[in-house]
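One chain is below:
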Amino acid sequence: MAEHEETLMEKTSEKIHADSSSSSSSDSDDDKSSHADILKSKVYRLFGREKPLHQVLGAGKPADVLLWRNKRISGSVLGSGTALWVLFEMLEYHLITLVCHIMILSLAILFLWSNASNFINKSPPNIPEVVLPEKCVLEVASTLRIEINRALDVVQDIASGRDLKTFLGVIAGLWILSLVGNCFNFLTLFYIIFVLLHTVPVFYEKYEDKVDSFSEKAIFEIRKQYAVFDEKVLSKFPKGPLKEKKKD
């Protein structure tokens, strides 16, 4: 009887020890996971983003194309853009000429098909009726008006001399853009931006951690140098008049 009680006590102690060790291990795992989540949240991301790159780009079909989720579709879009650039830039084909030739060919095919359908015993082509909805036009016009007014407001703030930093930044950006405009025409510049949009995001997503680490160091150094420049140069310029608060 005593031996039975001793074995029962040993089994009970072993069970309690196993439960305590499992609970301690689960607690340690939870602590590790929470610590990992904290470290992950503190990792620097380019432009201070908190969402994945796919969601930043809209999380739709355009984002799938830019990030090459479907290589066939993305390759087709990039190839079509390259073909158009070669057609207009390298072969010096004009846009109006291309549009007119496409319309001539399309109208000729539809006209011949409609008249020959009686002889070849086939139904004539079903040409859909295209109507531009009034609501869509009004929405686009309203959006353009808001954006234009916002841009004019920004230009007014920059020209009024209230913010010297923004003024110098805009001047530097326009000067760089003028230098780029001297090297490339509008079509080539548009094509370069098009290629960059289809290459930079996918490479950034692949080497995200390395790029973020390097950009963090670079931005820290730029802010450090800017602080010195602000203290020695920009702070000595007189400030413009304060902007009056808009009354409701």
Q: What stands out?
A: The longest helix spans residues 2-41. The radius of gyration is 32 Å. The CA atoms of residues 23 and 29 lie 10 Å apart.
